Amino acid sequence: MATIKDVAKMAGVSTTTVSHVINKTRFVAKETEEAVMQAIKSLKYSPSAVARSLKVNTTKSIGMIVTTSESPYFAEIIHAVEDHCYRQGYSLFLCNTQNDPEKIKNHVEMLAKKRVDGLLVMCSEYTQHSLDVLSSFSSVPMVVMDWGPNTDTDIIEDNSFTGGYLATKHLIDCGHKAIGLIAGELDKTTARTRYEGFVKAMNEANLPIHENWIMEGFFEPEDGYECMNKILTQDNLPTAVFCCNDVMALGAISAITEKSLRVPDDISIIGYDNIHSSRFYAPPLTTIHQSKSRLGAQAVNLLFERIANKDNDNHEKHRIAIHPELVIRKSVRNLK
Description:
By secondary structure, the protein is α/β, with parallel strands linked by helices.
């Protein structure tokens, strides 16, 4: 395997000159540059990525810490981030945490050793231990891609409260008064803010909130299925249920159809996230849209901006808001 010394010998220059040509760190005469490039081509020389990163102080890579890449919502965002990185010539190191503080710590330490140029964080929930770990990584540019802790980082907010309000308001506007909710764990920020949006819409319409129609799960289809079955065992049933993500809505629809009931004729369902598959549910799911591609692109662009200006300690921190939108399909019946 050819070395930088072999290239220098063939081109008749020093190894330092070869390094300047490869890394573009100093002006080199055109004839000399051409000689070096010809030698590299002839010898099929491939410079060490590690050595080069030490020279130019960049690895052209970023790290991304997420709760899980299995969730369709996270998977679509990860795809958008990876695609945007690829088009900019960057590699992406993806780390799943399952919201385990120890995993977050280990992943952060690993990414630091790999000398990533920046870090994207999308963990849904943050313990104090996790915040301390992220704070210790403050020398590396960082963008938080969800509700965001109160840290000294750039943050992209998803406005879950507004989304929860929009979903419930749509059910009310369609004439529904008996409305249930299948949420994530209500001690978690994302689930709680969507629930609070639900409460606001119900209170504005002077509608009662039936506690026995409020169910908690873990944002998985199994939880939507089990929570819906608990609602269906009751004597009085809601005419509509707001499921706080689309995969729980899928589980809820399965439970309803197993009881020989129909969506939306018997019970209307609205979801949240507008994942790609939601349009292919039976019936196609009315849901709250969050642009995963826009979120991914904005996060990466903001991170690249921070990487380019990482020596500037006085730059203003940004909070970029993603605004949820209602997508109307076939799973909500208009009772008016």
